[in-house]
Write a structure and sequence with these properties.
The chain is an all-alpha fold and 587 residues long. The chain is built from 32 helices and no strands. The protein has a domain of 123 residues: Serine Threonine Protein Phosphatase 5, Tetratricopeptide repeat. Helix 14 runs antiparallel to helix 15, helix 19 packs antiparallel against helix 20 and helix 26 runs antiparallel to helix 27. The longest helix has 20 residues.
Length: 587
């Protein structure tokens, strides 16, 4: 459509939007004279300012002030004209005058604050809200608006102060405040927000050491920052000042620390609670928790020496003597069985312990079936494959169309793989690839592909049989024999689809032997030579955690996490990698 065919309003907007301010100003002058429309006024003022016609701009503002004397935002416009001419003092006088006129009438407040924001003066927008708050003696008025303005200004201490002032008046809002602050912390592009929150928190806690709300917020923030040690210090401070509830915070921090791999902090927290005495409400859980931490530490480090194993075994037995073997100590009994079988070489003791669990009269059906799976695993470990298979079938039958049933079905399929019944194993694994359990489906897909790739390339299954035998040796903890068996697979032919799997298994063996540098080298070879194979993302994740947790190479760990996120976006490990990448980057 031609401009001539459009209204003056449309043509003026066209010129303005395309930066042709002289033509736009001429048209808006005519439009404004017809009706003193505020939108036309704002467009005309903006055009004058863009053209540098400050006298015309000031005359326009003054005329509107005469006709609209209560419109406080016009003082901002006047100040803006002065500011464009670098007359800062005159601009500030206008801004101050606008804020001073704020009274108990709240109607002009939002318009004035928005005018300051549009003029690039968020500091005066904040002063506007604070003046309105003072005029009404309402301490929480304009809370949301002030938080937003302070965030835009980068004044994170003041922003955090608003949250704390709100909690002073409404402590029940703590969960909502934490959700809001957590979102902002996650979206923050750098450390300035977190540092501002920390400074504000420290200041409040120092000024009000007996304020429980501030202490609890400090605990919450420290956990967000993965500063578990400081969080525990604050939780113990809460316990000292508020003994009737403080232990709850210590227990919570200990449990969160344990889940995040901060085992030393978790163990310190559990020991702190135990020192409060056996009558304390948290004593039992703390006693169990400390042993769970030690068990998790072994799984994390892949190995334990004979001296530490004997000490830990004695601590478990002492706990059973004190706490009993009952429904509440089932987690300890399950871990003790795992410890004895896979680290202590005493499968009979392990089987006996799980049998004791299954005899408990009030055991929940799901826990009973989970323990049956673990018992089946132990029997397979001990070479009793038929008994293991029977237990797997029992659990599968009792949990059809359930995650636990799928896990049992997968174990039986893997048992068939160990027994060289590859076609049957594959048929079961292919069914499991559509399992509702992502973990089971992923494991089933990996084993199914391992079998199918090698059924096609080797109709006699000889290499696959060698590999399955080596895999069973690895599962049973016969590490040196397993290493030799995987080596034999690698020496049998010059090239084979199994070679990436061989590298992965050999890396796992070295990790179990605490030979971490060798494991890292094997994983690097896998990623370098087989980047498109199904084990590549597993190798990257394992290598990242190995370098972060055992080799003290945080930069290498970051590179591995980043490569996994960029090159393998559909990997099962993406969420875990992103969390660990962000936590490592923030250190």
């Amino acid at each position: 459509m031609l401009l001539a065919q459009q209204s003056d309003e449309q043509v003026a907007a066209y010129y303005y939007d395309h930066g042709e301010y002289a033509q736009a100003a001429q048209l808006y002058e005519g439009l404004y004279k017809r009706g003193t429309n505020k939108y036309h006024y704002q467009r005309l003022l903006s055009a004058y300012l863009e053209l540098g016609e400050y006298k015309e701009a000031m005359r326009l503002v003054e005329r509107r002030q005469k006709s609209h004397p209560k419109e406080l935002s016009l003082l901002v416009d006047e100040g803006t004209v002065y500011q464009r001419q670098r007359q800062e003092k005159k601009a500030v006088r206008c801004y101050d005058k606008a804020v001073e006129r704020i009274g108990s009438n709240q109607q002009p407040v939002a318009d004035l604050a928005q005018a300051f924001l549009s003029a690039g003066r968020p500091d005066y927008a904040a002063r506007t809200y604070l003046a309105a708050r003072s005029a009404t003696s309402n301490r929480t008025l304009y809370f949301t608006e002030l938080v937003t303005v302070y965030q835009q200004m980068g004044n994170y201490e003041a922003m955090t102060g608003e949250y704390f002032d709100l909690l002073d008046h409404q402590p029940g809002m703590m969960s909502s405040v934490q959700v809001s602050m957590q979102r902002m912390l996650q979206e923050a592009p750098d450390r300035r927000l977190a540092d501002g929150v920390r400074r504000a928190l420290v200041s409040r806690v120092q000024e009000h050491p007996d304020n429980k709300v501030y202490l609890e917020m400090m605990i919450w923030f420290s956990l967000q920052e993965n500063d578990f040690g400081f969080a525990l210090e604050q939780a113990e401070a809460v316990d000292a000042r508020f003994p009737e509830q403080g232990g709850d915070q210590v227990m919570r921090v200990s449990q969160i620390s344990q889940k995040n791999g901060a085992y030393d902090v978790a163990a310190d927290g559990y020991r702190y609670l135990q020192r409060k005495g056996k009558e304390d409400v948290h004593y039992f859980d703390a006693r169990v928790g400390e042993l769970e931490v030690e068990f998790a530490r072994i799984n994390h480090n892949y190995t334990i020496d004979a001296k530490n194993l004997a000490s830990l075994r004695a601590r478990y037995l002492s706990a059973f003597d004190e706490l009993g073997r009952n429904e509440r100590t089932v987690p300890l009994m399950r871990h003790y069985a795992t410890l004895m079988a896979y680290h202590g070489g005493d499968a009979q003791e392990a089987v006996s312990t799980l049998d004791d669990v299954l005899e408990l009269p009030r055991l929940k059906p799901q826990v009973r079936d989970e323990v049956k799976l673990e018992l089946g695993d132990l029997l397979l470990f001990a070479g009793q494959t038929w008994d293991a298979s029977l237990l797997y079938m029992q659990v599968e039958k009792a949990n059809k169309n359930d995650v636990l049933g799928a896990a049992a079905k997968f174990r039986n399929a893997k048992l068939s793989y160990y027994s060289h019944d590859f076609e049957w194993a594959k048929s079961q694994l292919d069914v499991l690839r559509s399992s509702t359990s992502k973990l089971v489906a992923n494991d089933a897909m990996e084993l199914s592909l391992l079998i199918s790739d090698n059924m096609e390339d080797d109709s006699t299954y000889d290499m696959l049989a060698l590999f399955a035998d080596a895999d069973l040796l690895l599962y049973r903890g016969q590490l040196e024999s397993a290493w030799d068996a995987f080596d034999a697979v690698g020496r049998a032919v010059l090239s084979h689809p199994l070679f990436d799997e061989v590298l992965m298994r050999k890396a796992q063996i070295r990790m179990k032997q605490a030979r971490y540098a060798e494991a890292d080298s094997l994983l690097q070879r896998l990623v370098d030579f087989y980047p498109y194979d199904i084990t590549a993302d597993d190798a990257l994740m394992l290598r990242a955690e190995l370098n972060e947790d055992h080799l003290a190479n945080p930069q290498t760990a970051l590179e591995c996490y980043e490569k996994l996120l960029l090159d393998y976006p559909t990997s099962l490990y993406v969420d875990r990698a992103r969390k660990r990448y962000n936590a490592l980057k923030a250190r």
